[in-house]
Specification:
The chain is of the alpha+beta class. The protein is built from five helices and six strands.
Length: 125
Amino acid sequence: MQYLIMAMETADEFAEREDPERGPEYWAGWEAYLAALAESGVLTGTGGLHPPATSTTVRLRDGQRLVHDGPFAETKEQLGGYFAIEVPDLDAALEWAARCPAAARGAVEVRPLMTPEYYASTGAG
């Protein structure tokens, strides 16, 4: 089954990325996690995101496109990156989520992916 592990990070963690003193330790944790996912063969995709301040939110209202700088939600934790994995079940996905560096200070959200096989099983695809 395929799952998406979403790493939710705090403002401090986003700041660590660019900090000359704290950055190397920050990135070392992520590099080790990514290497473990890749070496195990469960990783199917990944990507990191720039800080929330770089985001743009788009809404369509009454046929008009409304564009706002910044993230959609004002929360303590924002999406910092994701890892798509293929594992036997939710328990295995949760094990990988617990190993994610964001779990120690931010949060990690895990969701099943709606794959082409899923859509085919529902008659939608």
